[in-house]
Amino acid sequence: MLATTNQNNLPAMSHSALAEIAESALIQGDLRGMTPAQRIEYYLQLCQSVGLNPLTKPFIYVEMKGKLVLYPRKEAANQLAKNHGISFSEPKVDVTQELITVTVSVRDCSGRTDSDMASSPLPKVLRTKQTPS
User: Fold this and answer.
1) Residue ranges per structural domain of the chain
2) What pLDDT is attached to residue 124?
3) What is the reported pLDDT for 54?
4) Distance CA 71, CA 66 (A)
5) What is residue 75's three-state secondary structure?
6) 3 state SS of 12
7) pTM for this prediction
8) 121: which strand partners?
9) What are phi and psi of 117, to 5 degrees?
């Protein structure tokens, strides 16, 4: 049962409707079963909970492993970095014959640092031909 409106001018959700949203999105990790109104409510609540401006479209819908999920865009990362005082180093890119590896380091306002790297196969069209010796 929908009640009056909330601060976002959307219908306020009943407890059972909120439970359905929580079960589908938080437990199952799938937004597919939600109505468009429930997805909007979930989107706005997620943005509010992590301090993101929903008007900047920080998330997009992506189908991943058969589930509809919210995937953070660069706008989400930029806002979160600004809100939490996080700075990024220039990415270090290493390209070999078959792999491209990117490493990025971050530092927060307290001086804590972290880094991570990811590798992906280099597309065959970008690989150089090597002549036999």
Assistant:
1) 15-81, 86-124
2) 82
3) 96
4) 14
5) helix
6) coil
7) 0.65
8) 99
9) -135, 155
The DSSP output letter for 124 is G
- Tell me: the pLDDT tens digits for 3-52? 444 554 555 667 777 777 677 777 888 898 788 988 898 899 999 999 99
Q: Which long-range contacts (CB under 8 A, 24 or more apart) does 38-44 make?
A: 38/13, 40/10, 41/8, 41/10, 41/13, 43/70, 44/8, 44/10
| CA–CA gap between residue 35 and residue 105 (Å, rounded) | 39
Q: Is 105's pLDDT higher than 70?
A: yes
The amino acid sitting at 120 is S
Token pair of 53, please?
């401006």
Burial class (CB in 10 A: 0-12, 13-18, 19+), 41: buried
Residue 130's pLDDT is what? 55
For residues 105 and 115, is the Cβ–Cβ distance under 8 A? Answer: yes
Tally of CB atoms within 10 A around 13: 20
Token reading at 77: 């990362």
